[in-house]
Amino acid sequence: MRRKTTLPSDGMTGRARRARVEPMAVRPLRDGRYVVETDGGTYVVDVEARTCTCPDNAIRHARCKHLRRVAIEITTGEVPPPGRRRATCAVCGDDTFVPMDARGPQLCHEHEHHPGDLVHDREVGSLLVVTRALHSRADETPTETGTLVSDYESNLEYGDHEPVFEAVYLDSLPANAGLTKLGELRAYRFPASRLQRVERGFIRSRSLAERLAHA
């Protein structure tokens, strides 16, 4: 349970000031709404519908201090936005927000990879293009030979719990072949932290990125 906190007034007045200086605890619900606990009562806020169960909003239809406080805490990253939940990045351990139905180990924005990203292999120094996220742990996912990704010799220094990505080596692409041939290359599986992002969206063609993801 979160404790009630206050925020600096920032020179504001009226409801905007009360949203900051009055002690409140904001707690997200699984349905995308938020419970706001105050010294005067507990209310349910729906930021998308712009409603609150307090009299100020329900009767006077004002943008009450509870709605304002929830909006502030979403903006500052204290609570997740509607439709997302808090999770822990499997690489760095920092908090991140992910879709409510996200499965498997999760990653923060800094360590996430997407189909079409250009990445650097920390072990051999080569460049690769990410083709697919598998949403499974390295100690649960086999390679083509049947060995678990986590047990593969060059992956022993990376986390067993990290999510696995498939990627293709750029240096295996013939010199006279275009990027459209990437989908024909053999994809390899890696724990997330072995791949260091060089350029997000290196493959900018949506159709090509989709073909890579389903290669």
UniProtKB/TrEMBL annotation:
Domain of life of the organism encoding this protein: Archaea
Query: What's a Gene Ontology MF term here?
Result: zinc ion binding
Q: Could you identify this protein by its name? A: SWIM zinc finger family protein
Task: Outline the extent of the SWIM-type domain.
Answer: 43-75
This protein's UniProt keywords: Metal-binding, Zinc, Zinc-finger
Q: Which Pfam families match?
A: SWIM
